[in-house]
Amino acid sequence: MPATTIHFIRHGKVYNPDHLLYERLPGFHLSNTGARMVQATADYIARNPQMATIAAVYCSPLDRTRETAGIILDALNRTRRERGEEPLKPIADERIIEAGNEFRGTHIGHGEGALWRNGNWKLVRNLWTPSWGESYRHIAQRVGEFAQEKVHQYAGRQIIAVSHESPIWSYRHLLETGHPEHNMLLRHTALASITSITYDSDTGDVLSITYVDPAKDVR
């Protein structure tokens, strides 16, 4: 049967010296360490004979995911040039954007954004929905809609989708357990990691889910 694989990649570490919850805010870019993380993942992809044949690279429209996609594409396009193929360009898709969060722009641990100030405690009354922003169910639904569309659009091929921890894990958790709700402290989606989901190209059914962390030793 023809199979389509989507490699969901989390962006690298972000430069955030003020320790803000940046969510979907503009102006948050990869740190030097984050760029090295992504380079390790990009090199891993370029060396992999199967992944080096990626047909498209999608990304969330945020700065950190665009930059991550750019580093990955630099590595992929070098291989494509050697094969006489046209370079790929990143394609932004809102469906794989970061989860919405009512604490955006605040310091969670102290100051006006602290959980115990200004009634903020009401936002954390439910850790499983979660009550502080976009529901895990909605996150998984939009990522799933993106995935099913691309499974058929790229039947029998492989693509990359550069996204964020919550969208990747919420969707994976839905596929593996039947529900997207989860304990955010137990996610298994490291920075610059790759969660690869393979689907039956005809039915859209999931055939396998694998995970690798090429950047685990980058500091």
Overview of the molecule:
- With 219 residues, this protein is α/β, with parallel strands linked by helices.
- Helix content is 31%, strand content 16%.
- It has four helices and six strands; from the N terminus they run βαβαβαβαββ.
- It has helices at residues 32-47, 63-82, 136-153, 165-177, and strands spanning 3-10, 56-59, 90-92, 158-163, 194-200, 206-212.
- A six-stranded mixed β-sheet has the order 3-2-4-1-5-6, with helices on both faces.
- A hairpin with a 5-residue loop joins strand 5 and strand 6 (206-212).
- The radius of gyration is 18 Å and the shape is globular.
- The termini are far apart.
- The model has no long low-confidence stretch (mean pLDDT 90).
